[in-house]
Specification:
By secondary structure, the protein is α+β, with helices and mostly antiparallel strands. It is built from six helices and eleven strands. The chain has helices at residues 27-34, 45-50, 52-75, 99-108, 175-182, 185-196; strands at 5-9, 22-25, 40-41, 80-85, 92-97, 118-119, 124-126, 128-137, 140-150, 161-162, 168-169.
Length: 197
């Protein structure tokens, strides 16, 4: 197994380090990503010294970002996000709820949480309540309650049947109901008038 190699970061790389950091990475990661994208290079005393000022600026920015995130997490204590979605009569959603949906819901509620900070194990596919982790850093984490509600009460929905292949089975409606739905409104009134007379 190849040993990790040391590289000097030329730019801040999320979950790895900030500009000017010397990091140990796997040779494949260095060869295939960091070096070709000019995000890192092999460290030399001259380059380390040259990046000291940039590193100090990046560290200051990182500290400010961390402080903002800590304040955001304090504001998010006991936050509940409610999303309305279409579903069938069994409460199964027609489309799943993803990190993007949750991020949009939090943004609308005034919480600036990006998609990458939402730790959703699996996409949500049913109505209900779900605890979802918001994690900015290893020690900056909070759980929020996500409630998925149907766009109309389940009791009012027509019951659906699915066959063995997963296709929707359309139920036959009574003849009278089909005739009423097929006839335009004006014809119904005309048909009713001679019967009354």
């Amino acid at each position: 197994m190849a040993k990790n190699i040391e590289l000097l970061l030329l730019q801040t790389v999320e979950n790895l380090g900030i500009v000017g950091d010397i990091v140990k990475v796997k040779p494949g990661y260095a060869r295939n990503y960091l070096l070709p994208h000019r995000l890192a290079e092999f460290p030399t005393p001259t380059r380390i010294e040259a990046l000291k000022e940039q590193r100090a600026i990046a560290q200051k920015d990182l500290d400010m970002l961390r402080q903002a995130r800590e304040e955001l997490l304090e504001r998010m204590q006991d936050v509940t996000v409610t999303l309305i979605r279409s579903c069938n009569d069994k409460g199964v959603l027609y489309g799943s709820v993803t990190q993007r949906d949750l991020s949009d819901g939090l943004q609308e509620a005034g919480y600036d949480v990006g998609v990458r900070s939402i730790r959703l194990q699996n996409a949500i596919r049913r109505i209900g309540e779900y605890p979802v982790a918001i994690q900015f850093d290893k020690d900056l984490r909070i759980d929020v309650l996500v409630i998925i509600e149907p766009d109309q009460p389940l009791e009012e929905r027509e019951e659906m049947e699915i066959d063995d292949e997963g296709n929707l089975v359309e139920k036959q409606r009574p003849k009278k109901q089909r005739a009423e739905e097929a006839a335009p409104a004006g014809e119904e009134e005309e048909a009713a008038a001679p019967a009354a007379g």
